[in-house]
Amino acid sequence: MKRILAVLLGMILGLVPIAATAAPGDATLLRRDMDGFNESIQSMAYLDGITYWLTYNGIYTCKDGDTQVKKQEEGLPSIEDEEGGSRYLEPMALFEAEGQMRLLMAESSSYEEDEDWYTEVEGARLYRVAIEGDVLSFEELDTLDWDEMVEDVDEGYEHALRMQKPFSMDGRLYFTAYRNSANAIMGYDLEEQELILEEEIPGLESAYRYRDGLLLLVNVDFENAECPIRLESYDPETGESELLCEMASSGYDAPGHVLYDPETDTLYYVMGGELWAMRGMDPESAKSIGAVLIDNWSECAPVLTDDKCLVLCDHQTALRRNTDPQTRAEHRLVVQNGYRETVQNACFSFGNRRGDVEIVLANINEDILQMMMNRSSEVDIFCLEVSTPTFEAMYQRGYLAPLDESEAIAQFVQSTAPAYQQVLLREGEIVAVPLFPDASCITLNKAALEKLGISEQELPACWEEFFDFLEALPPMLEEHPEMKAVIPFTTQQEFRWTLFNTLLASYLYRQADGKEAVSLDTELFRRLVGRLENLDLEALGIAEEQTLNSFSYEDGDLLMQLNASLSESLYTWNSEKPLPLALEAGEEPILLGQLTVLVVNPYSENREIALEFLEEVVGLLDEITRIQVCPEYNEPVEAAYFASNLEYYDESIAGVEEQIENASEEERADLERTLQDLRRSREEMIERDRWEISPESIQAYRRDAQYLVVSRYLGMDEGEFYTLINQYLADEISIDTFIQEVDGKWRMMMLENS
């Protein structure tokens, strides 16, 4: 019964693309947090066998055939500050023009006037980028008039227009940019220093280099169900376009990373997690070359190397892919992606280790339950929210492959908390791997509680006590006018909606626990809802309508969050106290958690590979996830920069100690004081900044997490259910009608299930 009635909280997640390194030339060249790379890629270009990437801090290069990317030691060009403000250059685009590599940088200044700071774009500078051996150099070619390429973000603050997929053709720089209401094709004449093209095109995805002085446009119209994608040629001289072909989409996916090779009349593009090659603009000729892990949206156009490899990149990853479809990997693993970084990282590490396997992270638009009923083997691994009807149906009908034969998975799942094991196991068999746990709860600010003189022992433990607490708040808040009960943007409707849903979810879980017949028509539920209805929200400072445009506050100014993440309480910087509440005094509190899991398709033809991939995922789960799901995993997590900060202090202290040994008497006193200050600062840093997740915060989390239960599907059509909730909260129906309607639908559902 619990499986039928527990609560729906979540949504099925979507897409992204991915691949292994099997074919000659294939390589992951850049990946954030790999080999020390932690920047964002802004632009990419290719010249004379070398691929160049531009980041905010520098340029990276890689020669054809190499797998090692070099960060050029020569930083980007810079300019000196001026008195009363600062001047700086911001990297905008890297592109090949006239057989040279060019770098475009916007010149901006910040200055203070009447105690306000202003930012202006003063122009742009164009540089020639040269590389001799492994040494990079810059030669300034020109300063450019950039007035037409500026956006006003706010009054007194402007920045240079952001360029997407820039490329040079016939002395002009073309790119895509978002303008007033749509993407626009932009063209800037580098010699004449003027904007010569700006045309907004509804549905324009991107513009690329084509042939014969023409541009290639990718236009998308998802309202056209049959062929929402149009590829068009565009003449920048006349503004005329011509249809080249129409294509069907992969779900709501459109071609990304588009490159046209005029030598072979081939269009390369990424869609549905795969790299495709289309000859002669004929969609029927399109063939998949292989899978790729790359975000389909990117600010960088791909490049084709001299040895016919494609280099693709998004803001954090750069891949090189062989364009010969005959070099594809032997095996193909299709994984439904839930936008979880752990899964993406597993795809990279697994692909690097298993070059015979290509992995496609795909957007699943079909009815997954219907796929199971049809015994489809198309998808090997599904990523699902436990609270969805899809997971519940697959769980109940046994459409989940057992995972027990993996010792690594078995050991991990057996170490998880009982609340998680209830959904990870089915009839004693392991059927799912936890990927992302969380829980939503009411929290109270510790500093605010201290201001109000409320101790932890005085906090409410059940819903009745919580309503007593809220009713007693107004006079306390009057004594602290800087304090707000909740964030001021919260309206009365939003306050009631959040509390009502939290109360209802807890009540349904308790009902589904089998202690009494399933019904909302009870004295307890009516009493608690009545307490919520009778709250004086104006006295709590909660407005009927939102009136504020902005609000600033310090720690201790906001008393309560109604829907905070329990996982955030793990972090040492967090100052919120979770407030698990029981339905009635004397009962255990209830914290409703959500869980995303990975499961294997029982009809998969790659079950052994799928199992090995899940082992990879388990091995890459971060410390935060392990602490949340495994009660015995209590390893504190050091802050990311603690080790380097400690090293800085130790080196500074050692340096001052060495100076003291060789100092005169006059110098020694000052150096001793400096040494004492450094030692004191070091100890304060260790005390204050050592832990991202401290032993104490883990202990506090354990006290709350013992009450966590995992939400399951409600069992009733969620759209219909939430319509009733919204009608009640909007005073369109009474609580009596709400209870009558919901109880009636549950009775009908139970009869159908029986």
Automatic annotation (TrEMBL):
Signal peptide start and end residues: 1-22
UniProt KW keywords: Coiled coil, Signal
Coiled coil: 646-688
Domain of life assignment: Bacteria
Protein name (Swiss-Prot/TrEMBL): Extracellular solute-binding protein
UniProt organism field: Candidatus Pullichristensenella excrementigallinarum
